[in-house]
Amino acid sequence: MTSPAKFKKDKEIIAEYDTQVKEIRTQLTEQMKCLDQQCELRVQLLQDLQDFFRKKAEIEMDYSRNLEKLAERFLAKTRSTKDQQFKKDQNVLSPVNCWNLLLNQVKRESRDHTTLSDIYLNNIIPRFVQVSEDSGRLFKKSKEVGQQLQDDLMKVLNELYSVMKTYHMYNADSISAQSKLKEAEKQEEKQIGKSVKQEDRQTPRSPDSSSNVRIEEKHVRRSSVKKIEKMKEKRQAKYTENKLKAIKARNEYLLALEATNASVFKYYIHDLSDLIDQCCDLGYHASLNRALRTFLSAELNLEQSKHEGLDAIENAVENLDATSDKQRLMEMYNNVFCPPMKFEFQPHMGDMASQLCAQQPVQSELVQRCQQLQSRLSTLKIENEEVKKTMEATLQTIQDIVTVEDFDVSDCFQYSNSMESVKSTVSETFMSKPSIAKRRANQQETEQFYFTVRGNGS
Length: 458
Fold this sequence. Notes:
Shape: rod-shaped
Largest sheet: none
Helix content: over 70%
Strand content: under 5%
Low-confidence stretches: none
Mean pLDDT: 81
Number of helices: 9
Number of strands: 0
Structural class: mainly alpha
Order of helices and strands: HHHHHHHHH
Radius of gyration: 58 Å
């Protein structure tokens, strides 16, 4: 046999409802606090971005000025009278071309960093200021809208509370009326049963007197039954009336409950999300995106400008050509490097003979002299061939030393997740002191040997 269901009392139901509403009210309060905090964080973030780019603009401007000073320091030398002639004569030589392009690149970088500083101060920072102002203004309006939505939600919850209380009241009245009706029905059944038993127990004893008594008793019982029936009818009407009110109140409560749940769902699922998306976040991410893309555009164009200048320098470096520069130098100073005029035979005192004379006894002496010269030339040719091979091998060694491809420093610009530069081992780098000293000693020793051989060969 199943145990009877336990029904919650009105106080328990009201207490549970109050607790649930209290939790919702606490949530609503925390939501506003959370949105306030997010607004404060945004304002702080935008302020930090402004301070960052303001300081970066100062650094860029200082860097630009230092580059300008650096370029002007060396450009001033080329503007002097003495150096003007040097520049005029040397401007076609590939090393000087590299030097001029390098100074031009420094000037270009100086202008570019000035432009970058100006973009930071007059473009990007005002964008952040505007985003901050817009965010603050929109949040203030969003907070007003959010507060109104919360007030409307609490109004719905209060209405539900009122409807629930009304339902409880009418349902309690209906239950009370039903209880009174059942009590009247029991009294009626009891009275009818009592009357029937009394009539069955009574038997006729005297002809007239007993008959009169029975008639009176029967009349009294009927009167009592009618009173009970009348009370029952009143209680039945009261129960019917209260039952109808309770049904209507329950229907109102169920409808209000459905509407309240729909309102709560709408607020938490739609209104709250829309409040953040369409009010608090309205234009914030898009505006921030545009400001940061302005920064990216400036930096990328700075990099592109630098690459263009470096490409010009790289092209000049690729065109470093000793042979061509030698030819240009000799052409520019043709009067210095051109061969002198041949020495002419100057006859003395009318001696007009300008050719070798092979008459005896000079002829035998000339033949012997010719043989000696040929022997000497053969010996010198062999020696020169050996010297030439030695010089070529030594020169190749020197060229291998000075043309070694040790200029790649990309490893120094590789970064780990911690953003720390990955430094190569000192002993393996080009600029390590032991490595430099060793290479310099080898190079100087080889050069000394080369010039010694060349001097002896000459």
